[in-house]
Amino acid sequence: MHGSATPLSASAASAWLLVLLCAVSGAYCLLRARRADRTVRGMAAGEAVMGFGMAAMAVPSGTGAWGPQVLAAVCCGAAVHALWLLRGGMHHAHHLVGALAMAYMALATAAGNGHGHEHGHGQAGLPVVTGVLLLYYAGYVLLGGARLVTAGGVLSVAAGEGGPGASGAEAGGAGELVRACRLAMGTGMLAMLLTM
């Protein structure tokens, strides 16, 4: 057996940390969806689905032979939901991109299943699509991190509050925590795309 001296390799440990990060983010979004009003509930529920889907996709042992197809179907459903939310404004476009990216990764995993895939992620995939998604999420993470750092102490929106000028990030939860959750999921997407 190769490398059996260490019970948990560094790559497996980082994969499990990614699973934990995405699952905690999904759980927080689910709690936010339960407490939020109608205008924020759909967005928070979509983020919860994305968080749990990313956690399932990041499991080092993979999701089994049927897992990628199920994940792709769930992500396509999330994409339809995000498309429906676009009626409320273009700020939901990120959710559409995220759902489509997850469906793309799930389909790439299904195509590469059993052909040298590692940590549940397929080696297959279109390099151009993967490259565009990498650029998008790298920019999203950098911009989100900069906004989170500069927003420290500025946002003081209590849970459930937010007037007409409150953004979707501020309404339905503490602004910084919502931004940090979204940044964590964006970082997780970037990490998963790097393994393709």
User: What are the segments in which pLDDT stays under 50 over at least 5 consecutive residues?
Assistant: 1-5, 114-122, 153-173
Query: How much helix, percentage-wise, in residues?
Result: 55-70%
Strand content: under 5%
Largest sheet, strands/sense/barrel: none
**Rg, Cα atoms, Å:** 17 Å
Number of H/I helices: 6
Order of helices and strands: HHHHHH
Count the beta strands: 0
Q: What distance lies between the first and last C-alpha atoms, to the nearest angstrom?
A: 26 Å
Task: Looking at this protein, list some descriptive labels.
196 residues, mainly alpha, 6 helices, 67% helix, globular, disordered N terminus
Write the layout of secondary structure elements.
Layout lengths: L9 H26 L2 H21 L8 H19 L7 H20 L14 H25 L23 H20 L2
Helix pairs in contact: 1-2, 1-6, 2-3, 2-4, 2-6, 3-4, 5-6
Give a verbal description of the structure.
With 196 residues, this protein is mainly α. The protein has one domain. The chain is 67% helix and 0% strand. The protein contains six helices and no strands. It has helices at residues 10-35, 38-58, 67-85, 93-112, 127-151, 175-194.
In short:
The chain is mainly alpha-helical and about 200 residues long.
